[in-house]
Amino acid sequence: MPSLPSIRRIAFRSDTSSGRQLSALREKFPDRPIAAFTASATRRVRHDILTQLRLREPRKYIARFHRPNLRHLVRQCDADAQLRLMVAALRAHAGGNAIVYAPTVARVGETVQFLKQRGIRAVGYHGKMDAQQRQCNQERWMSDECASLSARSRSGWE
């Protein structure tokens, strides 16, 4: 029996090529079990995932869960105060991991450089990176090699 390919995570948006990638999984592996996991999909996206993967009698577990390790800070401020607060928050939680969301691809790069200049290990992550670099940066962040991941807010996780 040939070995199965390693399928890590596929970001799913049904209106993009990732939706077509999901449907290709069932075509390439018609007799293999397929599992799908999501942390925040809407009802419509969950339905699209089931449709694209053509899951047979899927078991669905939908629940809220408390994540005490996640912290959110929302504060109205000017740009200078925002940068000071971001650095202070990252330093206050040194030893942990953080995701800093940026509104544009350009701001992802600027944020990474800003953090590095202040001695904070950071990598970028966005949908316009080539897949290999994006995966490498995600793995560096997940393995604690980099404390901060600057991501465009709609880039989708691979």
Task: List low-pLDDT spans.
Answer: 1-17
Question: How much β-strand is present in the residues?
Answer: 5-15%
CATH homologous superfamily of the largest domain?
P-loop containing nucleotide triphosphate hydrolases
How many strand elements?
Answer: 3
Mass-distribution shape: elongated
- The total of helices stands at 5
What's the CATH C level of the largest domain?
Answer: Alpha Beta
Q: How many individual domains?
A: 2
Order of the strands making up the biggest sheet: 1-3-2
| CATH level-two architecture of the largest domain | 3-Layer(aba) Sandwich
Describe this entry's structure for a reader.
The protein is mainly alpha-helical. The protein has two domains: 12-65, no CATH class; 79-152, 3-Layer(aba) Sandwich (Rossmann fold). Helix content is 39%, strand content 9%. It contains five helices and three strands; from the N terminus they run αααβαβαβ. It has helices at 17-28, 43-53, 79-92, 105-117, 131-142; strands spanning 98-102, 122-125, 148-152. A three-stranded parallel sheet has the order 1-3-2, sandwiched between helices. Strand 2 (122-125), helix 5 and strand 3 form a beta-alpha-beta unit. Helix 1 (17-28) packs parallel to helix 2. It is elongated, with a radius of gyration of 18 Å. The chain starts with 16 loop residues before the first helix and ends in a 6-residue tail after the last strand. 16% of the residues are buried.
Concise account of the structure shown:
This protein is mainly alpha-helical and 158 residues long. It has helices at residues 17-28, 43-53, 79-92, 105-117, 131-142, and strands at 98-102, 122-125, 148-152.
